[in-house]
Design a protein that fits this description.
Blueprint: H1 2-18, E1 25-35, E2 40-50, E3 57-63, H2 75-82, E4 98-106, E5 109-110, E6 113-115, E7 122-131, E8 136-146, E9 155-157, E10 160-163, E11 169-170, E12 173-174, E13 177-178, E14 194-202, E15 206-210, E16 215-219, E17 222-232, E18 237-241, E19 243-251, E20 257-265, H3 269-277, H4 282-296, E21 304-310, E22 321-325, H5 326-329, H6 337-349, H7 359-372, H8 375-383, H9 389-398, H10 414-436, H11 438-452, H12 459-470, H13 475-479, E23 495-499, E24 515-527, E25 531-539, E26 548-557, E27 564-573, E28 579-597, E29 603-619, E30 628-645, E31 648-650, E32 655-657, E33 660-677, E34 684-692, E35 696-708, E36 714-726, E37 805-814, E38 826-835, E39 849-858, E40 863-871, H14 873-879, H15 884-887, E41 889-892, H16 899-907
Parallel strand pairs: 1-14, 20-21, 21-22, 23-24
Antiparallel strand pairs: 1-2, 2-8, 3-7, 3-11, 4-5, 4-8, 6-7, 9-10, 10-18, 12-13, 14-17, 15-18, 16-17, 19-20, 24-25, 25-26, 26-27, 27-28, 28-29, 29-30, 30-33, 31-32, 33-34, 34-35, 35-36, 36-37, 37-38, 38-39, 39-40, 40-41
């Protein structure tokens, strides 16, 4: 038996020997006085810095991270913009923050500092005479900090102050050298463990919470708090008015007793009592997790844990301190609490370089969250698509947008930071657990944590711990960190299963095999001619997406006419390298486009059917953090049309009746080159399109640019230009429906049948038809060409139609953000354009035509209603007798509804 005890002891001693023989020694004495009116603090720092490295140091890099909030040109600001957040970028000057009035002394002598060549929030402190190995020196500094608004867990908001990274902090100097780095929201930090003594002075009625129990002392009428904390990753604190405290303890299996303190506003006291009745307050929820984590990893590393309710919870865990925002303070889900508790081990105590190896904190925290979350919490997470990170990881892997686990935090996309550094690493750790066995894995984690507690482990150190404890080689397992290889077990023979829903979000339920769902759901359709249609939507649209996809939607008109509908089939593959995805497919549709009665009273319908074979090539982004997309598409529109013919006036009713149907076929070939950047700041897209048929050719350029406003919203600017020509100038066919124009495009002019129209041929221009074909449907437009928001169909000469070229600009701006107490979907638009024929002698219109007015955008911009209020004189004279309602136009822009993008956006909202 003795040999069994000797082996783990030898392994542990080898691991300790594998550590570097040094870590820098830091002992702080901090003082701060909080000015709540100015939202600032004055502070001082005395730091004893002992050089345990084998190198003589001639300078020390210092992080002065409050300067990350100084302006919108910092690394912090750039990363927020890249992650889709504009609040800081557009914030007022009084919402910004900084640190100034810095004066450093080294061993009592005034010392010089130098700016970092790249980062505004990093400086170099020069050491007169240097610092030899084994020696120490005293660094003192005074400073003033203007606190920013609390954008992401640091700053001031509503008389609550969350203070972290507020004093000059030496960058880590380890076996790889110095690690100066700017402050970033995504990517955590890299701290040197240190001992702290801090005195915080706040106004009366304010309380201070930090990473240990406080001794509140009265100094000459000042409300001061004294703290002492050892082996901490940093010293963070929260100050707020009227905080109440709840005390408790938790005893670990080893017998160690941890003091627990809960701090919350007095206004929450009744809510907390209600939650206590259900054992759902944060202390009650934390106790079993602390016991479990201590048993699985090692005893909780600090003597106490303080939990405090804040406005915004930061991503970083501070030694002995967990901040919980309202959404995570009460309730049943522990999506934030449990990882934050695990962060006490893997962020606060085990100080890996989170910026370089984010998986060594985020992934470990996610692993223990997955392992310890309650069945109720797990069910709660799976119920909501936006919370299902396992699903979204599979979606990203299928779409070839993931990155290796070993990718540094700053190089990861926001999506991959959660999915790869967190979720995928947790799956990787689970695979290690399965390979080693749960007991062996837990034993290895004990060895790893105790060997590197309050140290700076890297990936090789974790591997050494696993190999040393288990006796198994880990080369193949760790090689997976450097690849994008999926960790999901995939069954190539998916079983078919029917699902009665519109699409399936999960094609591989965990531990229940994998399925290829065939989704079936009822649908309704409508147009003015088929009227109400009922049918079924049958598809295999799942997440993750199938390579082969199909959709069939047969619709039966209630007027008893033949079945209408649409469908599509496609196949995609992912070559990698420069091309991310290639898709080939074919779309089809058949619907009525007009209705009339012949002279005998029989119903007649115009119909169209189309087949559209296509090829789309999506090119790979230049980097994972890039939002720039490029693709090309090639389509052939093969269109069959049944149209009315042999019109005659019937003497019985004096109305015009068609008496026969003519059938025709035509085609349009189309090549589109596309670029789109969905960046949050000034997004844009452009499309260059070439169209050709046996009758004509068209070249279309469409470009959109969005100018953000600091108060929210912004202005959309659209530029359109088209060149039109015919192959045979002696051609006698009417090509007007194909020619570009300035006014809104009608359903009749949608010659590829790409848009949805209530009444495709509806117009006020036709009178005395056997069946009325006007009304509301005659006011629908498509913003395809010039986009002037007006329909004057009876007057063809003012359409701005050209057999040569057309060019237009469209402006659409939101209203000032502070104009209404709540956001309203109202915009102001102005359109102006010109065309070739307007520049000819004796032109029928002015050279420039314009419209302007109010736009109402509903349902995520799917329905847009336009009320023109100003127009060119060419239009004004023609519509002055029309009612206000007849002047209105609207567009139905179904292409603006991207359900996958909406779901994914919600999944990664913070």
């Amino acid at each position: 038996m003795k040999k069994l005890f000797i082996l783990p002891a030898l392994l542990f001693s080898q691991l300790l020997a594998a550590q570097p023989a040094w870590r820098q020694g830091l002992q702080y004495r901090l003082q701060a006085k909080l000015d709540v009116q100015q939202e600032a603090l004055d502070g001082s720092m005395d730091l004893r810095y002992k050089n345990h490295s084998p190198d003589t140091l001639h300078f020390i890099w210092l992080h002065v991270w409050p300067n990350a909030y100084r302006n919108d040109k910092t690394s912090y600001s750039d990363q927020l913009i890249g992650n889709g957040k504009t609040a800081f970028y557009f914030s007022d000057k009084d919402k910004r923050g900084y640190i100034n009035r810095l004066e450093f002394r080294v061993n009592g002598m005034l010392a010089d500092i130098q700016d970092h060549p790249e980062y505004i929030d990093v400086i170099k402190l020069l050491l007169p005479g240097g610092l030899a190995p084994g020696d120490s020196l005293q660094i003192s500094a005074t400073f003033h900090v203007k606190l920013p608004y609390n954008f992401s867990g640091y700053g001031a908001e509503n008389n609550t102050f969350q203070i972290s990274n507020w004093y000059p902090e030496p960058a880590v100097y380890d076996r790889s050298g110095w690690h100066p780095m700017p402050f970033l929201e995504q990517g955590g930090a890299y701290h040197e463990p240190a001992d702290y003594e801090a005195t915080i002075e706040v106004p009366e009625k304010y309380s201070v919470v930090a990473g240990c129990s406080a001794d509140s002392v009265l100094h000459h009428g000042n409300n001061s708090y004294f703290f002492s904390l050892k082996d901490a990753n940093s010293f963070a604190w929260v100050a707020a008015r009227h905080l109440l405290e709840k005390k408790d303890t938790v005893q670990l299996e080893s017998g160690k007793i941890i003091a627990l303190h809960l701090y919350y506003p007095a206004s929450d006291s009744s809510n907390l009592r209600e939650q206590e009745a259900y054992a759902q307050d944060p202390v009650s929820r934390s106790k079993p997790f602390i016991r479990q984590l201590s048993a699985l990893i090692s005893d909780y590393p600090y003597p106490s844990l303080n939990l405090v309710k804040v406005l915004h919870a930061p991503a970083e865990s501070f030694s002995g301190l967990v901040m919980l925002e309202k959404a995570h303070f009460y309730g049943f889900s522990d999506t934030h609490l449990l990882p934050a508790l695990a962060g006490q081990w893997f962020q606060a105590a085990c100080l890996s370089n989170e910026r370089l190896h984010p998986w060594m904190s985020e992934g470990f925290m996610q692993y223990y969250y997955d392992r310890l979350q309650t069945p109720f919490s797990r069910k709660f997470e799976k119920k909501f698509l936006s919370r299902d990170r396992e699903l979204w990881l599979a979606v990203s892997e299928k779409g070839k947008t993931t990155q290796p686990i070993s990718t540094p935090a700053a190089d990861m996309s926001r999506e991959n930071y959660y999915l790869v550094a967190g979720t995928k690493t947790a799956f990787w750790l689970k695979s290690l657990e399965d390979s080693l066995g749960k007991e062996a894995f837990d034993r290895s984690m004990h060895v790893y944590f105790n060997a590197w507690k309050f140290g700076h482990p890297g990936p090789d150190d974790f591997r050494t711990a696993l190999e040393g404890s288990s006796g198994k080689p880990m080369e193949n397992a760790f090689e997976k960190l450097n690849t994008v290889q999926s960790l999901f077990p995939r069954d190539p023979k998916k079983r078919l299963r029917l699902a009665y829903r519109y699409f399936s979000a999960r094609s591989f339920p965990a531990n229940k095999g994998q399925y290829n769902f065939i989704n079936i759901a009822p649908i309704l359709g409508y147009n003015n001619y088929d009227h109400l249609m009922a049918g079924l939507l049958v598809n295999n649209y799942n997440l993750p997406e199938n390579n082969f996809q199909f959709l069939i939607a047969p619709l039966y008109p209630w007027n008893g006419k033949p079945i209408e509908g649409l469908g599509r089939i496609s196949y995609s593959w992912y070559p990698g390298k420069k091309i991310r995805k290639i898709t080939i497919g074919i779309n089809g549709a058949r619907f009525s486009s007009n209705y009339a009665k012949d002279s005998t009273g029989n119903s007649m319908f115009e119909k169209f059917s189309k087949w559209v074979p296509y090829l789309r090539i999506d090119f790979k982004k230049r980097s994972a953090r890039s939002t720039l997309e490029k693709w090309l598409d090639l389509k052939s529109y093969l269109i069959y049309e049944n149209q009315f013919a042999n019109f005659a006036v019937f003497t019985g009713d004096s109305l015009i009746h068609p008496n026969s149907i003519s059938r025709s076929f035509r085609y349009v070939n189309q090549l589109g080159l596309n670029i789109r950047d969905d960046r949050v700041l000034y997004p844009y897209d452009a499309r260059l399109e070439f169209q050709q048929s046996d009758m004509f050719y068209r070249i279309n350029l469409n470009a959109d640019y969005f100018f953000n406003y600091s108060s929210g919203g912004g202005m959309r600017v659209r530029f359109f230009a088209a060149k039109f020509g015919v192959w045979n100038k002696y051609n006698k066919r009417d090509l007007s429906r194909y020619e570009p124009k300035l006014l809104g495009v009608t359903g009749e002019e949608d010659y590829t049948y790409n848009q949805y129209f209530l009444g495709r041929t509806a117009s006020y221009a036709f009178e005395n038809g056997s069946v009325a074909n006007d009304g509301l449907a005659a006011q629908q437009i498509s913003i395809r060409d010039g986009g002037l928001k007006l329909r004057i169909d009876p007057y063809d000469y003012v359409q701005g139609r050209s057999a040569d070229w057309v060019s237009a600009l469209n402006f659409s701006t939101s209203l000032p953000g502070r104009l209404f107490p709540v956001p309203v979907p109202i915009r102001i638009f102005f359109d102006v354009g010109t065309y070739a024929e307007a520049w000819k002698t004796n032109a029928q219109t002015s050279r420039f035509l314009y419209t302007g007015g109010i736009q109402l955008s509903l349902f995520k911009n799917v329905l847009n209603i336009y009320a023109p209020l100003v127009y060119s004189s060419d239009f004004r004279d023609l519509i002055k007798s029309e009612t206000f309602w007849r002047k209105l136009t609207f567009s139905i822009d179904i292409q603006n509804l991207d359900y996958k993008k909406l779901l994914k956006k919600k999944a990664f909202e913070k």
